[in-house]
Amino acid sequence: MRRPLLVLAAVVLGATAVSAQNVTIIKERQDHLKKMGDAVKPVGAMFKGEADFDLAKVQAALKVIQANAPQLPPLFPDDSKTGGDTEALPKIWENKADFEGRFQKLADAAKAAESTITDEESFPDAWKTVVGNCGGCHKQYRKPKS
Known about the structure:
The chain contains 5 helices and no strands. It is mainly alpha-helical and 146 residues long. The protein has a single domain, classed as Up-down Bundle (Four Helix Bundle (Hemerythrin (Met), subunit A)), CATH 1.20.120. Helix 2 packs antiparallel against helix 4 (96-116) and helix 4 runs antiparallel to helix 5 (123-141).
């Protein structure tokens, strides 16, 4: 009688550990995405004409994107499709190569914009290219906001 209880306890503990791992991975990827979102918000306000242009803030946001985007693909393992408050759609795992490639494309666009954006005049077109990568991914691979 004791052996089945031990086996059951091991299974329950193992399932709990996997669940905790999923939540940890989901939280980690959300933290990276939040860092990028927080960096992009004030620059988005500049883009919309709601704030004055500030090259230093633009360059800082581009560096945050470059640092965080390449770290994201490994944070979407198969065992993190659900759990936590994930907004990830199943399409991510159905189109994994496309999804992962988008992070590299985003990082590359941010790197290119870093040297392209030198003043307010050069800002709009280059910034639009960068954030276009964000929006394209959100539309395809993220649950719509309620």
